Amino acid sequence: MVAWSDMTQDVLAHITSFLPFPDIYRFGAVCKNWRSVSKLRWHPPAPELLWMVLEEDSETKKRKFYSLSEAKHYSIEIPELQGRYICGSSYGWLFAVDINITGILINPFTRECYELPLFPSYNEKSNVTTLLEKVPSDYIDGPRGYTFEEMQTLIVFKAILSHDPRDTSDFTAMILFGEINTPAFWRPGDSSWTVVDGPKYRMEDVLYFKGNFYVISAMNMLHVVEFEPEPKLTEVGPQIGKGGCPEQRYLMDFNGNMLFIERYCEDVEGLTITIGFNVIEPNLEENCLYEWFDIDDYAMFLGRNSSIFVNSSHVAKCKKNGIYFTDLIDGFSERYQDLGIFDMTDKKISTFYSVKVFPPRIGSPIWLTPILW
């Protein structure tokens, strides 16, 4: 009988195909032979629920993560993220802003990294965006007396990618920044961000869908980003929404269908909390809307990340027909997190994270798809 430590590489590698990535590291700790197989990376890790990126530990400076599948916290030393605010997550990469209002794009597990230029500044009074070559004085004493620390968490509302940088160097990063979440983009090799011209009202989400970037506004209007001859937003399709006043609007590519999602909140004991969602499919060709009442075996993950979905039948412990959400709420005296799962079947909210989260300045929970290779 062959000892476990002497099993052949092909058999051991096949075993790793059933393991999520934390278990692959545990697998590699068994013995020298297993460790060598764990580094071969012949198979991708088994599917698991998303992770949450949490705050930085104030003492060790390690970044905290929470595995939804394991219901377990991890503290990982990632020097590149020390002192940085996470403002976006896309394809397993994180957008992080430092105290000097510059950023990086990083895969926190492989440590692949892109340096990003200084983020654009903005003039709150006129809503006119400007690109600056150096850190301006109004980042220190801004229109409302913003400090560097405040600007670090406010300058970028959301950031996404058109493609996974591991697959191609021809990708575009798109951010929503400033007082009204103005779109701006950057591509590898650019020395600065390019601001997209558009209406002077608040934008709430951005999506890369079938070769184009789309932006949804607080006026429930959908816009497409046109890059030529000059970058600008152009309205497309009908006005979206059911006529209410949602707390937040999201866009998602759901199996090749563009979805518009509204999150509704109400005040409970002084806190604004989520009470429900509406899911709508805008048909741009027919110029009409279709309301969705369920998503069957799928689950959505919404927040400051690129909105994504998973098939619950492929991932253990995943709540089907559910919307997992995490968002940052600006209260009267502090910013706090609203976390939960909305069941589209019974319209009830349940919790997935037992710890009551009131995040410090650096770090707020954001969904991340762990990608190792």
UniProtKB/TrEMBL annotation:
Occurrences of domain F-box (ranges): 4-39
A Pfam family hit: Beta-prop_KIB1-4
Domain KIB1-4 beta-propeller residues, every copy: 65-343
SUPFAM superfamilies: F-box domain
CDD domains assigned: F-box_SF (cd09917)
InterPro entries: F-box-like_dom_sf, F-box_BR-signaling, F-box_dom, KIB1-4_b-propeller
Highest taxon of source: Eukaryota
Gene3D superfamilies from the UniProt entry: 1.20.1280.50
Name used for this protein in its record: F-box family protein
Upper taxonomic lineage: Eukaryota, Viridiplantae, Streptophyta, Embryophyta, Tracheophyta
